Amino acid sequence: QALLVESGGGLVQAGGSLRLHCTASSNIKYIKSMGWYRQAPGNQRELVATITDGGSAKYADSVKGRFTISRDSGENAVYLQMNNLKPEDTAGYYCKAGVSYVSDEQDYWGQGTKVTVAS
Question: Taking residues 93-104, what's their average pLDDT?
């Protein structure tokens, strides 16, 4: 069983919308932050958006005003609402959970969900 499970990717026309879901296993405790990263062919994995347990969100410049990250801490879930999608948004999107408790810190990653935006 995967510790982080993503869903919501797919094929969409430019200007359309998708909503990505990521749910962390209950086996993962003390999640401080969750986020989304993406990796397009030939590119490095890059930050898309993150959100802390306090609700502080951070976005890549390329998605500001178009994407919104939200978190449901009760379900260990994070969502990414993607509006006005562009072809350059095409990538594999990966969910990340950052765990921190006292001196123990660790990151967990999902397997990714594919987003394809047609021009």
Answer: 92
